[in-house]
Write a structure and sequence with these properties.
Layout lengths: L1 E2 L28 E2 L11 H9 L6 E4 L1 E2 L9 E4 L2 E6 L2 E8 L3 E4 L7 E4 L21 H5 L2 H6 L4 H8 L5 E3 L20 E2 L9 H7 L4 H13 L9 H12 L4 H12 L9 H5 L1 H6 L11
Antiparallel strand pairs: 1-10, 2-4, 3-7, 5-6, 6-7, 7-11, 8-9
Organism: Halobium salinum
Pfam families: DUF7531
InterPro entries: DUF7531
Length: 293
């Protein structure tokens, strides 16, 4: 498997505002994300724990799924008027990396306000943690799982709408990180033990207005989960929740700052906002990245 990522970041950026006909591939079946993030990266339980231990809990966010009333056979529970996917009446979710709006110009386009991974350098379009121990498995093996399942890749979606070759070899790696069914429970897909604690939270998740405490609630449950089980170690979850809600990482600060400054999705930023975007993040503690070779 070989991919050409230079100048792309199609996996890391919500480029739908650049292509109105872009396929909404995450929102096609009976369970659709409650949030509107594009290609939210799911983290393994141990990865969530590592982010919390490294002080990056504030760069994490949950994803729940909406279950339409027409899908009567699906397991679901209703919170804040939203029917969400559940196991035994308890909401199911995963934890991913926040995607705040940033002034970025993928695929050679002019810079626009587009939702982008908190760890993406907005000028070089390189990941700031690519060679770091925190680099997610999902990112490292992408699009291996898609190739193994015969599913369309983000590389191909980008190729279909913009110039350039992105997917250079279709042979999936030996390890694709694919986890389906029971193997995902407690390891990549988590079950919240107390739906009553989510009153108000689910509504904020649907409106894109989660608070730091809201995000920390889910992060704590993920860290307290046991692989292969829906059980949660509440003491471990509480410790992770407390560390997350008090986290003050550069990635969290950058995400908060961009969210305050951003225009509407697809709008052009002021010229200085894009020209100095990398420096803006470095001034808040982001590490340097090299340009593409």
């Amino acid at each position: 498997m070989r991919v050409n990522c230079a100048g792309c970041a199609g996996c890391c950026v919500d480029w739908r505002p650049l292509a109105p006909d872009a396929p909404n591939h995450e929102r096609r079946d009976g369970r659709v994300p409650l949030d509107d993030a594009y290609n939210l990266v799911p983290l393994l339980r141990d990865e969530v724990r590592d982010y919390v231990d490294a002080g990056f809990g504030d760069a994490l966010t949950p994803r729940l799924w909406r279950v339409p009333a027409t899908n009567a056979d699906a397991s679901a529970t209703t919170i804040d008027g939203h029917r969400v996917a559940a196991v035994d009446g308890r909401p199911v979710f995963f934890v991913g990396l926040r995607k705040p709006p940033k002034p970025v110009g993928p695929f050679g386009t002019d810079a626009r306000w587009l939702d982008a991974c908190a760890f993406l350098d907005p000028e070089t379009l390189k990941c700031r943690i690519h060679e770091d121990e925190l680099y997610p498995e999902t990112c490292g093996v992408y699009p291996g799982a898609n190739l193994e399942l015969g599913a369309e890749t983000e590389c191909e979606r980008v190729e279909a709408r913009f110039d350039g070759e992105r997917l250079l070899d279709r042979t999936p790696p030996e390890h694709t990180g694919l986890r389906l069914g029971p193997a995902a429970v407690g390891a990549k897909l988590f079950v919240h033990p107390d739906p009553e604690r989510l009153a108000g939270v689910v509504d904020r998740a649907a409106s894109g207005s989660l608070t730091a405490a809201d995000r920390a609630e889910f992060v704590g449950v993920a860290v307290g989960s046991r692989p292969g089980s829906t059980e949660v170690d509440e003491e471990r979850a509480a410790r992770a929740r407390d560390r997350t809600v008090t986290a003050d990482s550069w990635a969290g600060r950058v995400a908060d700052e961009w969210e305050r400054r951003a225009g509407d999705p697809g709008d052009a930023p002021a010229s200085d906002e894009h020209a100095d975007a990398s420096a803006f993040e470095r001034a808040r503690g982001a590490p340097d990245v090299s340009d593409w070779d």
